Amino acid sequence: MHLLPPSHQGPWASLTAQRYGELFTLRIASTTWVFLNSSRVVTDLLEKRSAIYSSRPRMPFASECMSGGCRVVVMPYGERWRSVRKIMHGILNGRNAELFRGFQERESERLVGEVLRRPEGWWAANQRYANGVVMGVVFGKGITSEEGAEGLGKEGNGKSIFGPNGEEGANVLKKNGGGKSNIEKLFDTSQEFIAALQPGANLVDVFTFLDRLPTPLKWWIPRGKASFQRLLDVYGAEVRDLNQRVKNGTCPPCFATKFLDDPASEALGETQRLFALGSLMEAGSDTSRMTLSQIIAAAATDARWVRRAQEVMDRVLGVAERLPGLGDRGELRYLSAVVKEGWRWRPFAEIGMFSTCSSARRICCRLMEEFSWTLWNLSGVC
Asked: Keyword Glycoprotein: yes or no (predicted)?
């Protein structure tokens, strides 16, 4: 385990892949970690044979203690996983794209306006945009100034609150005695979960035999239960707010209204329904923010492609006449390529998300043991 860096594992994984080829393994405690480093093995195992290689390993802290076994992203294949996934995919499909389109375009307009007014706060505008889109799609509500839209860069009276060392506005507010809104707490729970997924963040998730200790000796349980309760509290509050807005006729159609109205979701139970909503929040916020920031870094590094992108937009949209919409995507293929390059250049999960092998298999002349951990080395593949 000492070979694996505690953070930013992407560069290490890429160099190791160059040395050992399209597949290498690490032995950590009693578990073998298998790194997939080429499109060939990734496609062969995780796509063509996904039923064998794409389940999730047991993680006593991240999956069980702090998630109650209800977080879809760390849930092993099974009946519960299939039930949740079926309902979610029934809503997040092409037929409902028009339903979520307004949230995306509204937040895009706000993002452009914020960057034009306060270019020094571009990073905070990206975060506000990402949070605003996901809140609109999931709960049908925007992020107000007090909850972080303008508040990431200004207080309610318009006074700038960017810290002297570039601190995020919300953190400055906290230092100045400001309390946290439910939306800020909501995103805190996402950050807490992402931190828990980092390799080695929780010993019991790596050395699972520790879970055999007597309950009084399991030092991670109080922290995990507290995190579990915080998530139930913040998402429960959002659902109550959603129900009130629906009752008042002020809530537009969104993922949560469709999900909670689906009779099949009632069979999942209240806790699982809250975690299903939370899974979308966790999947949609930081990934969007980081991709936007990477594209801005690319623009600062080499402006040639920026000029090409501007020429394409001016030709399709006119010179500063309007912003692009989803309907323009077919004519803005160059911009689609820019977005994909942003994903490729620095993936959000540098060594992918853990999956597990459900039965022993031989691949690339190596035996992959049952319950081995499989990692898609995104940095190496890209």
From this structure: no
Q: How many CA atoms lie within 13 A of 144 on its CB side?
A: 5
Burial label for 164, CB within 10 Å (0-12, 13-18, 19+), is exposed
361 dihedral zone (left: phi>0; alpha: psi -120 to 50; beta): beta
Instruction: Let me know: does 153 contact 145? Beta carbons within 8 Å.
Output: no
pLDDT single digits (tens) 253-265: 999 999 999 999 9
pTM of this structure: 0.79
> In angstroms, rounded to a whole number, what is the distance separating the alpha carbons of residues 165 and 167?
6
Tokens 């043991």 sit on residue: 369
Determine phi and psi for 368, rounding to 5 degrees. -95, 115
- Give the integer Cα–Cα distance in Å for 382 and 133: 27
8 A C-beta contact, residue 154 and residue 114: no
222-278 pLDDT, tens per residue?
999 999 999 999 999 999 999 999 999 999 999 999 999 999 999 999 999 999 988
| CB 61 within 8 Å of CB 224 | yes
